Structure formats: C-alpha cells, structure tokens
Amino acid sequence: MTEVVIDRPARGAGGEWSRCPACAAYLYGKRLDRHGKVCPDCQHHLRLGLDERLAALLDPDSFTPLELPDEDPDVLGFVDTRPYGERLATARRRTGRPDAVIAGTASVAGEPLVVVALDFAFMGGSIGTAVGDGVVAAAECAAVSRWPLLIISASGGARMQEGCLSLMQLARTTQEIVRLREAGVLVINLNTDPTFGGATASFSSLGDVVIAEPGSLIGFAGPQVIRQTIRQELPPRFQTAEFLYEHGMVDMVVPRDSLRETLGRLLRLHTPPTPASETAGTAEPVRDPGALPREDPWDVVVRARDIARPTTLDYIHNAFDEFIELHGDRAYADDPAIVGGVGQLGAHRVVVIGHQKGHDTGELVRRNFGMPHPEGYRKAIRLMRHAARFGLPLLTFVDTAGAYPGLQAEERGQGAVIAECIATMSLLPVQVVSVVTGEGGSGGALALAVGNRVLMLQNSYYSVISPEGCSTILWGSASNAPAAARALHLTAPDLLRLGVVDGVVPEPPDGAHRAPLPTIEAVSAVVRGCLEELAGLSAEKLVAERYTRFRAFGRLDGVAAWDGAPR
C-alpha cells in the first residue's frame, strides 16, 4: 500500500475540540459537524467518515446495498509485524464493515445511480480482492440497469498483504469501466482525501467526469516516495486537487456543500429529455448570398475582431438553460482558450465547445487571445467523444485568429492534434452544428468546424490564413492586409456562394459588438432550428452527410472513382 501522510486534526479532551490542520484554528466539534467537517475559518476540508459522506450525497433512505462475496482474502497467509488476518479483524471491529468497500443503488436529486465507495478507515481504503469485487459488482449493475456509476475514492493504493492479486484488481476493475464507456453508461469519479497508487492507476481516473474535493491529495506515487526515490523537491500544492485541476487531470474541484447539487445536475444533463419537437423560437439562416449586403472585407475583419463581440461563454450563459463546464485534457493542462461542457439549449441537451477570448486585456491574456495550445484541442477531442458516447448533439463556436504558433505548441504536437480534431469530428455519430462567431482563422478554426451545418455571423470571417499573414507572405509585408482580405474572399456572402458555409446569421444594424443580446438570441434560434432539422437523421446518415459535404470541395464529381485496378 502506498504510504500517504495526511495531517489530522488534534483532538482535545473528550473529543469536543479539534484544531484545523490548515490554519490551526480551534474547532468546536458540534459546529464543525454543522459545517460538514469544513473549517469555517479557512474552508479546509477535513476527512469525512464514509457513512457521513453517503448521508451528505445521497437522497435519504435511497441506498440499497448489493450483495458481495464473503470470503477470506488472506490467500497468502501474509505476516509482517502482525498476521494479515489479525489486521483484518481489527479493521472490521473498528469500522463495522467486512472490508474497505460498499456498493449499492441509490439516488441523487431524484436521479437513480449505482454507487461504490471506499472507506479509508479500513486499512487505508487499500485495494484487495474484496474492493475489486465491489467495484466489479457495481459496474455490472450499472451495465444492466444503464444507471450512471458514481465511484467515491479514498485510498492509499494496492493492499500489499494480498501480493500480486491486489495488483490484478487494477486490470480487473479497469476493464469493467471500459465496458461501461463502450456501452455509453455515465461514470463519475469523486476523488477525496487521499486517493493514491492503484486507485488513481485504475478506476479512480477513468470516469467521464472526474470531480475532486478542495485540498484533497491525489496522485500515483506518494510525496514521501518521490522524495526518497529521486530526491526531488516538490512544488507547493503538489498533488492537491487544485494542482491536478490546473494540469488537466480533473474536471472540477467542488466544495463539499455543493457536491450533491453538482452531481444532480450532471445526472440530469446526461438523461435523455422527453422527445419533443421545438418549433417556437427557431429561425432560418440567410441562405441567399444576394440577400446580404456587400461590405469591404477589411471592415468585416476589423468588426470580427472587436473585443465587445459575444464570446462562447456569453452565448452559453445567455442562451442555455443550464450548463456545467468540464475541464482538462487528462494529459497536461486545462487550456482556457477553449471552453466546453454539457448543457441544455431549449429542448436539446448538448455538448458545447468553443474558442474563448475575452472583453478586457486581463482576460484576453489569460486565455491567450483565443489561440489554443495542443492541450486545448485535446480537451475538445475529449468532449467530442463525450458527445458521441452519450448521443448528445455537438455545438461548436469558432472564434480564433488561429491555433497558437509557438515553440511549446509545436513541441506538444499542434499539427497532429488539430488533425485528430478534424478526424474525430468527421466520424461523430451525432448532430454537429458549428458557428463562426468572429474570427475563423485557418486550421485552428477548422478543428472545431467540421459540422453537418456550418454557419457564420454576418460580420465574421473564415479564411485559410489571416490577411496579415497572407500579405506578409505574398506582398512582402503586412501593410497590404486590406488588399489580401479582399483577395481571400473571406466574408459571409463569398463563403455562402462557395458553399463553405450553409447559412448566415444576420447581425443587428450596429453589429454584434453593439447589440450582443439580440445577436445571441438570433444565433440560438438558428442553431435550435438546425438541431431540429437534423434530429430525425440516423447516426449513419449524419456521418455520411458530413462526409459528402466536405468531399464536395473539389472537382472529382464528374470523374469515375478509382476501382483499385492498376492503371
């Protein structure tokens, strides 16, 4: 079992008082209980007992346990300073549980689910065959019922007293989570303090959504192991929930008092809505290029870049009835230049992804002016696959000068990950609607725009390269950018005529940057109309239609397809 050292509150006389391990404030026991074991002074989350945690998360009286095998796990006859059997007996007396796991069915906010949870009080929540049995039984129950699976982890790692049999639980439980993934059954991880070793290397990291409590220590090798093995000094907040969030490993860090509400919203947004046709409030885009005013392309480029234009988050917060943002690429970081998550748009539960800029210098800098790094596109791919897994339509908002053209981006595979974005979108078995809302810069834009329907706002542009880039390459300086903009035919009427976009959303007379809310309402109405239009198509037809749409951008239509015979 991986050794994990956690500060514990020091109990005073009679156990009525304790001290917060973070701020050292004295805490009165009853007051601490009223706050859910969260320090009222510094908000440090102290450990909850498993029964307390389930009571805080699950609907009252909703938990029904699953039957688990009752076997002696001491197959090896393991003895260290004490026989393994004695350690088990002590843990059973102390916790009242046969082992470190419980599993059963329950509900959260009225939504049914299957839950499996580890008890750190039982031998550090270590993973042996009994824990494997609990996770497998819960996963099989979720597969049959098609209810979401919630995995609550608190573990020091694999149980050394069961030798390699404990190691095999990592593969055994992982393959059950993979089966749920392939079947489109939602898996949510809730990782609490501490979650280490074999837990993070298997079922605790594989959820479709990974949540962590504030301040929880989460990792593979414990900090003491790292220091002793490689003699490396560790950075501040290393392996905390917040550290993992910044590095793209968890979707959200949720305070304890918001966990039940967050879980309920996640469950609801992944439940198919009652089938209903949405006609009220939908609209058609402009499909006739002649119906659009002809304007100087450079003026359009300037308007498309105005920082007052609505951003992806503006569209989401003003048009969506509900939205939960998901974070991270599960590999390196959470790129703020791309945002995404699950939400409710009218009658449709969707996955939404978009480039995100900002309305002031601080936010623009923080979001890298909407120019994603590879981890941003990896996050997008992850969310695209999320949409496919749960049969949710995908809506994308495009507004970027282009993918970030820097050294670090190239080192992390910028071109390859953009290619994977395009490939992933091409094969999504769900409705895909893409909207160019501002700048549509090159492959960085196309990575989010392989849709069944591709729309653009009247004062946006979409181009193979920026006018400045084109001018620099072909004219020798950026000073001819206005001429390049005219030559590139990058405005809405031209792209509608070329078939690059399927429709244009008109902007208010003063432009989107002058009237953001009417613009957002217009885009929402057109998008909902497109989703209704596509709703009756099968997965196969959606993929085939998308394939046909993009294959048509060439001159092979009148040429016989190659039959494989040598010429």
Using brief descriptors, characterize the structure shown.
2 domains, 20 helices, 8-stranded mixed β-sheet, 17% strand, 2-enoyl-CoA Hydratase, Chain A, domain 1, 7-stranded mixed β-sheet, alpha/beta, 567 residues
Provide a descriptive summary of the structure in words.
This protein has 567 residues and is α/β, with parallel strands linked by helices. The chain folds into two domains: 47-269, Alpha-Beta Complex (2-enoyl-CoA Hydratase, Chain A, domain 1); 308-542, 2-enoyl-CoA Hydratase, Chain A, domain 1, CATH 3.90.226.10. It is built from 20 helices and 17 strands. Strands 10, 11, 12, 13, 14, 15, 16 and 17 form an eight-stranded mixed β-sheet that branches. Strand 11 and strand 12 form a beta hairpin. Residues 1-14 have low confidence and may be disordered.
C-alpha Rg, in Å? 27 Å
What's the CATH C level of the largest domain? Alpha Beta
Tell me the CATH superfamily of the largest domain: 2-enoyl-CoA Hydratase, Chain A, domain 1
Q: How many discrete structural domains?
A: 2
Helix content: 25-40%
Low-confidence stretches: 1-14
Arithmetic mean of pLDDT: 93
Quickly give the CATH architecture of the largest domain.
Answer: Alpha-Beta Complex
- Percent range for β-strand residues: 15-25%
Alpha-carbon distance between the two ends: 65 Å
**Based on CA inertia axes, which overall geometry fits?**
elongated
Q: How is the CATH topology of the largest domain named?
A: 2-enoyl-CoA Hydratase, Chain A, domain 1
Class computed from helices, strands and strand pairing: alpha/beta
